[in-house]
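User: Please predict the structure of the protein below. I'd like the answer in C-alpha cell form so I can feed it into my own downstream comparison script.

Assistant: Understood. Taking the following sequence of 230 residues as input:
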Amino acid sequence: MCQATHGPEKLQTFRIKVMRQAKATIMSVNHAQRVDLEVVADLIPPQSRVLDVGSGDGLLLELLQATKQVDGRGMELSQRGVNECVARGLSVIQGDADKDLKFYPDKGFDFVVLSQTLQATRNPKLVLDELLRIGKHAIVSFPNFGHWRVRLSLFVEGRMPVTKDLPYSWYDTPNIHFCTIRDFVNLCEELGATVEKATALDANGQKIGLSMPWWFWNFFGQQAVFLLKR
C-alpha cells in the first residue's frame, strides 16, 4: 500500500532530477556564450509547440526537448547549422527568416523563438511581424547596442566596438541592424505587440532588477530577452 502511494511521487522526483541534470549538461557546453538560452527556456511551458527561427547548432531546441518535452521545429539559414541540428536528432530545415516565414500558418505554434538573430535579418520589422503572426507568443533575444561599454568604445576609440556579445569586426559581422533595448520597445509599440515579460542581462549574465526603468536596462543591459504577444 505504501509503495502504491509514494511510487508516483518518487517517479516525479526522479524525473525532475533527470531534467535538471540534462539542463545543466546541455548549458555547460556553451553557457559562457549563450546565457540567454536558459532565460528563453524558462519562459516556455512543458509540451509546448515551438518553432526556433535561426536554430544555429540546435542548442536551444535540444535543451527544450530534454527539459520541457516540447514539440520542437527549427529553421536555420546555414547548411552547416542544419547539419549540426540533424546530427543532434532535431527537426530543423534550411530556410531564410526574411523570406520563408510567410509559409507558416497563423498561430501554428505556441511559441516562436528568435534568439540572437533579429539583428542579422534584412528586414527586422517584417520578421518580428511574422513571428507575432505565427506564434501565440514570440520570444526574442538580442545584444543591446546601447550598453555602456559599446557607447564608451565609440566615444573613446571612435571605432565600432568588439565585445563578448558583438564579437565581429565591422567588415565581417553578420549583424546588419544593430538596435538598443529602447529601439526594440519602440518597434514593439509600432507593431501593436504587448510585452508580457522582459529580462535584461548584464555583462556577467545576471538578470537586472525588474523594477529598474527602461533607460537603466538600456545602459547596463548587455543583452535582452522579450516575451511578446499580439
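That's the full C-alpha cell string. Strands lie at 49-53, 71-76, 92-94, 109-115, 135-143, 194-201, 223-229.
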